[in-house]
């Protein structure tokens, strides 16, 4: 049962502050399950297993663990491996990290970034074989700006607002127009001098 069908409020992003929850989600299979649910939900453990390349038993275990820490929830109906799951939130950010949580936050960030970079490398290697209409909408670009910290924060907010135009379509499939495909935007913004400072 979708949030739309249940008449529930749209799901937002979760601000992740609990080190235990960070450690729980910092697992390749669990991150893959959240990504699978981003693409299609609800999913049973058996359906998820086909998407992430794991066994249904393994997926059922990891889905229960994600549920324990508030990342997924039961969608209603079914039992055991036939139980459907949905995301509790449409994403998460690591926020207000305490000194005690810094290690867990760093480990989770490294795993998420590695997952993103791995996908970028795979897309780069196979892009030449894409159909023409996919090639046109697959791109990479580098841009350097000279900004104050305040301007950089403003740019981040503007880019977020731009992508949020389509946020409701993620949570509500009925809002997706015919022909819509899942698009992924991976954005890295950082002070370029940080690299040279590290080398020094």
Structure notes:
The protein has helices at residues 3-6, 19-25, 28-39, 45-52, 56-68, 102-126, 132-136, 149-163, 167-171, 193-199; strands at 13-16, 72-74, 85-87, 91-94. The protein has 200 residues and is mostly helical. It has one domain (3-199): Winged helix-like DNA-binding domain superfamily/Winged helix DNA-binding domain (Arc Repressor Mutant, subunit A, Orthogonal Bundle). Strands 1-4 form a two-stranded parallel ribbon. It has a two-stranded antiparallel ribbon with strand order 2-3. Helix 4 crosses helix 5. Residues 1-7 have low confidence and may be disordered.
Spell out the key features of this protein.
200 residues, two-stranded antiparallel sheet, 4 strands, globular, 10 helices, 50% helix, mainly alpha, Arc Repressor Mutant, subunit A
Give the secondary structure arrangement, pairings included.
Blueprint: H1 3-6, E1 13-16, H2 19-25, H3 28-39, H4 45-52, H5 56-68, E2 72-74, E3 85-87, E4 91-94, H6 102-126, H7 132-136, H8 149-163, H9 167-171, H10 193-199
Parallel strand pairs: 1-4
Antiparallel strand pairs: 2-3
Helix pairs in contact: 2-6, 4-5
**CATH homologous superfamily caption:** Winged helix-like DNA-binding domain superfamily/Winged helix DNA-binding domain
What integer is the average pLDDT? 87
End-to-end C-alpha gap: 55 Å
Q: Give me the number of helical elements.
A: 10
**What is CATH's topology name?**
Arc Repressor Mutant, subunit A
List the uncertain runs.
Answer: 1-7
Total strands: 4
Specify the biggest β-sheet: 2 strands, parallel
State the name of the first-level CATH class: Mainly Alpha
Give the name of the CATH architecture: Orthogonal Bundle
Class from helix and strand fractions:
mainly alpha
- Fraction in helix: 40-55%
Shape: globular
Whole-number tally of structural domains:
1
Task: Give, in order, the helices and strands.
Answer: HEHHHHEEEHHHHH
Order of the strands making up the biggest sheet: 1-4
What fraction of the residues are assigned to beta strands by DSSP? 5-15%
State Rg: 19 Å
């Amino acid at each position: 049962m979708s949030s739309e069908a249940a008449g529930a409020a749209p799901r937002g992003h979760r601000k992740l502050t609990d080190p235990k929850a960070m450690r729980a989600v910092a697992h390749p299979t669990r991150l893959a399950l959240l990504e699978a649910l981003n693409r299609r939900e609800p999913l049973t453990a058996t359906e998820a297993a086909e998407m992430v390349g794991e066994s249904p038993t393994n997926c059922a275990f990891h889905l229960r663990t994600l549920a324990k820490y508030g990342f997924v929830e039961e969608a209603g109906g079914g039992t055991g491996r036939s139980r459907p799951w949905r995301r509790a939130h449409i994403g998460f950010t690591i926020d207000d990290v305490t000194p005690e949580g810094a290690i867990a936050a760093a480990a989770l960030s490294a795993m998420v970034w590695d997952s993103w970079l791995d996908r970028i490398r795979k897309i780069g290697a196979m892009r030449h074989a894409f159909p023409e209409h996919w090639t046109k909408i697959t791109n990479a670009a580098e841009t350097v700006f000279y900004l104050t910290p305040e301007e950089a924060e403003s740019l981040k907010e503007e880019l977020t607002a731009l992508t949020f135009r389509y946020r409701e379509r993620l949570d509500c499939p009925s809002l997706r127009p015919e022909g819509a495909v899942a698009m992924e935007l991976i954005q890295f913004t950082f002070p370029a001098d940080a690299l040279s400072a590290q080398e020094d």
